[in-house]
Automatic annotation (TrEMBL):
It comes from the Eukaryota. Residues 34-565 form the Choline/carnitine acyltransferase domain. The lineage of its organism: Eukaryota, Fungi, Dikarya, Ascomycota, Saccharomycotina. Gene3D superfamilies: Chloramphenicol acetyltransferase-like domain, Choline/Carnitine o-acyltransferase, domain 2. It is an enzyme of class 2 (transferase). This is Carnitine O-acetyltransferase, mitochondrial. Carnitine acetylase is specific for short chain fatty acids. Carnitine acetylase seems to affect the flux through the pyruvate dehydrogenase complex. It may be involved as well in the transport of acetyl-CoA into mitochondria. One of its GO terms (molecular function) is carnitine O-acetyltransferase activity. Keywords: Acyltransferase, Fatty acid metabolism, Lipid metabolism, Membrane, Mitochondrion, Mitochondrion inner membrane, Peroxisome, Transferase, Transit peptide, Transport. It is found in: Mitochondrion inner membrane; Peroxisome. It is a peripheral membrane protein. One of its GO terms (cellular component) is mitochondrial inner membrane.
Amino acid sequence: MTVSTRFIHSSSSMAAPVKKKGDMYKHQDELPPLPVPSLKQTLDTYKKSIIPYYPKGEKDPHFLKYGKVIDDFAKTQGPKLQERLEKYAVGKRNWLSDYWDNLAYLEYRDPVCPFVSYFYAHKDINTVIGKDQLLKAACLTSETLKFMESIENESLEPDVLKGTPFCMESFKWMFNNARIPNQIRDLSPRFEPKENRFMVVISNGHFYKFYHHNLETDTILSLNDIYAGLASIQQASHNQPAPKNPIGVLSSSHRDKWAENYQELIKNPINRLSLHDLASSSFVLCLDDTFPNTFEERFRTMWHGNGINRWYDKPVELFVTRNAVSGFLGEHSRMDGSPTARMNDHIVNQVSKMTLEDFGSADESLNTPILFEHLKFEVNAKIEKEISQELVTFKNTVDSLDIKVWHHFGLGKKQIKQFKVSPDAFMQMMFQLAYFKYTGTLRPTYEPASTKRCFNGRTETCRSVSPESLKFVKLWENPSVSREKRVAAFRDAVKAHIEYVGKASMGYGCDRHMFGLRQMLQPEETQHEFFTDPINNYSSHWYVSTSNLSSDQFIGWGWSPVVPEE
């Protein structure tokens, strides 16, 4: 379909010059491979990390007993597994990547939404553009497409922190990619961008394929044209009732159930083409008809929405509501949050600077065809029944999850730094103290440490609970302890946390290494008691998960609990 309606203004702005191809990956050859830590280092790190979970600490009889098990593992099965892992790692720049992507994500069977995906809620933009749904959506789309092209032509500046380059491999999974349901292990194909110059827009539960490039010149449509396309799609979607059988909710299913329904859907050639377009599209934009106002309402919009106006299998899914609240949801299989946080930080910052003049004049794009088409789905009786069931399941699932927001404006990172304390370590200790105040104990706490300074690095676990953090919270809650001793305990806990983060970010935490050692077990081999002792599972059962990627362009971010307990 060709659309001619455009948002018109009187002037235009100059496009930034395109950088030469190659900058994005210029540091890749410098990156070290992900190391295989020594067995002793990992076991020492692990042994210290579990001390807080025993009532009497390192003097506890149960800890002493398990300590002997760890020592036996270090002499018997451990060296064999270590040798195999080191041999497996030879010639690989990242020995973990295939195992981790598959076992931690693509083989994970619970619904990706709400249990795996993560969200960012964009800050409000107090401008004409920032208060209008379609203007804001057009600007976010335009800036996202520019970011996409900077990855495609490799002109995106590489991530460098304090002179240390970080791996850029995961950026290539951001666009023209999707998770596709499959039994046992989902698929995650990447499609050729230049062959798929379209996005998917979801409005009123209907799906539209919108070509965001001029197919003759292979250039991004102007803001006017993007606005025109979105406006026409929104109008077309509301000129008909919402779909009786909203196909989007199926992507919220248990992955095995979704794989079964997916196979049923693609028996129909129309469905097969529509699902292929969804998978190969650059990204998804959802135009919601809601008016979220409170922080909880906004965050629930980004976190899971209504299950209908969504497609949860895309790495990049943007939302703009009727009252111009916007945000992002990310499918997690091939990327952690840092690439998408960088993109969202950039696009929101750019949109906050834009004015109506950026839309240009009407005559600049009058001859550009604007193409979109309604993606059709034909639903048989089996799929109709499944959709009905999944709508109920989705509602029950999201209703079982709480989200509460507290704002404290009295302390920020600049003030924390004045006390010569890492803001991250400070907050991790505050989480520990708050949890201790609430429950009277500490439980396993997860913080990701980025290993992107290694080639194709993703994350390592930083175990925030330590003997030092336990001592800190106990002393802090004891009114008979002097202020000086409490502050000293706090600083000791912060120091221990920073040391762990430093080791983990270089690939020398204990969790990924122990994961790798498990993968080296042969089918006929029995696991050593080191792996089967209850504390091994308990110490990595993350009652508290503290992942975060903050930005001045976000009002919040979040994800689901990763274990069923509180």
